TrEMBL record:
Gene field: LOC103718403
Pathway: Pyrimidine metabolism; UMP biosynthesis via de novo pathway; (S)-dihydroorotate from bicarbonate: step 2/3
Keywords: Allosteric enzyme, Pyrimidine biosynthesis, Transferase
KW Transferase (keyword) present: yes
EC number: 2.1.3.2
PANTHER family: ASPARTATE CARBAMOYLTRANSFERASE (PTHR45753:SF6), ORNITHINE CARBAMOYLTRANSFERASE, MITOCHONDRIAL (PTHR45753)
The protein's name: aspartate carbamoyltransferase
Domain Aspartate/ornithine carbamoyltransferase Asp/Orn-binding: from-to ranges: 252-403
GO biological process terms on file: 'de novo' pyrimidine nucleobase biosynthetic process; 'de novo' UMP biosynthetic process; amino acid metabolic process
Source species, domain of life: Eukaryota
Protein species of origin: Phoenix dactylifera
Domain Aspartate/ornithine carbamoyltransferase carbamoyl-P binding: 104-245
Length: 408
């Protein structure tokens, strides 16, 4: 018989229910699948005709609710390694579906329009959960580790809030570069192998581009890239696209102005990859010479048939755009060349003059934190969407955590 279409949060060994037709790309080490299934189904043989079942292994208690047909039996799969046994299970209100297409979230190129549309649908459901006064328990029993080698406020807190709002728990280190074994010379790979033994999913920010790929190739649990140096920030890009769709009402035909530090800004790089998925879009690059958008992004856009244009006139670009996406000049990327930083800083500022030429339907976005590149008097204008944008990050990250741990 099939289990009822409900999600079960598993304690300790983190049992996951997946359709029997799915294949796991990362099968647990030390798990004897055939003997486990034999043991599991033998224990349940005498219980299939009852409306509920309880299974014991020593002092551990497993409780299921059984529907009336055997059509789509969901098999339990142990992700922690070692002997796999049924453990404590608690029911929740969201159903388990098919396995999410991705094992990890590393870069924007992983997503297509269909996947993004489906993620946005789940994000809208997460918004309903967040607004509900009663706490959700769909990720009860799961642990998320946040491993941040660079400073973060919004990204780290939004991930931690997302996990807790879904009933999960968090293990966190705010400055892993300075206050972890990395300071002693431990490799990233060794750190990941250690931390995955304590958690079910790792959210990582690193100062080196490509670090997230290294972590994902090492880990046996999902890795989410929360920013890797000047490389990418895919969850930020997803929430940016989600915000544009909610605010403007469409994604095809968007005119997008990317402003500020485009050479070092991982957010604008990731966003450019995602916007290229949509039709009849155009991107304007407005940046000081020292931090212009790099050629790899321009070449990618050209290969996808996306029109782009470089400009030094922010007012002209703002008058044409649906979205003005401002970014700060990142001092931490200049090293000792403070002179170059000072030369780039303050060249393009979004202020009342920019608002005056923008279309009434247009919006201003910013990944935050801001310094002086958007004046505070802009905040009161309804077109200032950056704080709504930040809130949308909660819903996108709730959706990704649910999908990576439980599936659709």
């Amino acid at each position: 018989m099939a289990l009822s279409p409900q999600t079960y949060a598993i304690h300790k060994e983190k049992l996951l229910f997946r359709p029997s037709t799915n294949f796991l790309t990362k099968y647990p080490r030390g798990c004897n699948q055939s003997s486990f299934y034999s043991n599991f189904f033998t224990k349940q043989q005498s219980l299939v005709n009852s409306s509920s079942a309880s299974i014991y292994k020593q002092d551990k208690h497993l409780s299921f609710t059984w529907p009336s047909q055997m059509g789509h039996l969901r098999r339990p799969v142990c992700r922690s390694g070692g002997p796999c046994y049924p453990l404590d299970v608690e029911k929740s209100s969201i159903s388990v579906g098919e396995k999410f297409q991705l094992d990890d979230v590393i870069e924007s190129q992983q997503f297509d329009r269909e996947i993004m549309s489906d993620i946005f649908e789940v994000a809208r459901e997460m918004e309903k959960i967040e607004k509900n006064s009663s706490a959700s328990k769909i990720l009860r029993g799961y642990l998320m580790a946040t491993l941040f080698y660079e400073p973060s406020t919004r990204t780290r807190l939004s991930f931690e809030s997302a996990m807790k709002r879904l009933g999960g728990e968090v293990l966190t280190t705010e400055n892993a570069r300075e206050f972890s074994s990395a300071a002693k010379g431990e490799t990233l790979e060794d750190t990941i192998r250690t931390v995955e033994g304590y958690s079910d999913i790792i959210v990582m920010r690193h100062f080196e581009s490509g670090a997230a790929k290294r972590a994902a190739s090492t880990a046996n649990i999902p890795i989410i890239n929360a920013g890797d140096g000047p490389g990418q920030h895919p969850t930020q890009a997803l929430l940016d696209v989600y915000t544009i769709e909610r605010e403007i009402g469409r994604l095809d035909g968007i005119r997008l102005g990317l402003v500020g530090d485009l050479a070092n800004g991982r957010t604008v790089r990731s966003l450019a990859y995602l916007i290229a998925k949509y039709q009849d879009t155009k991107i304007y690059f407005v940046a000081p010479d020292i931090v212009k958008m790099k050629d790899d992004i321009k070449d990618y856009l050209t290969s996808k048939g996306v029109e782009w244009e470089e400009s030094m006139d922010l007012l002209e670009v703002a008058s044409k755009c649906d979205v003005v996406y401002q970014t700060r000049i990142q001092r931490e990327r200049f090293g000792e060349r403070i002179d170059l930083y000072e030369a780039a800083r303050g060249k393009y500022i979004v202020d009342r003059k920019v608002l005056d030429v923008m279309p009434k339907h247009a919006i201003i976005m910013h990944p935050l934190p801001r310094l002086d590149e958007i004046t505070v008097d802009v905040d009161a204008d309804p077109r200032a969407a950056y704080f709504r944008q930040a809130k949308n990050g909660l819903y996108i990250r709730m959706a990704l955590l649910k999908l990576l741990l439980l599936g659709w």
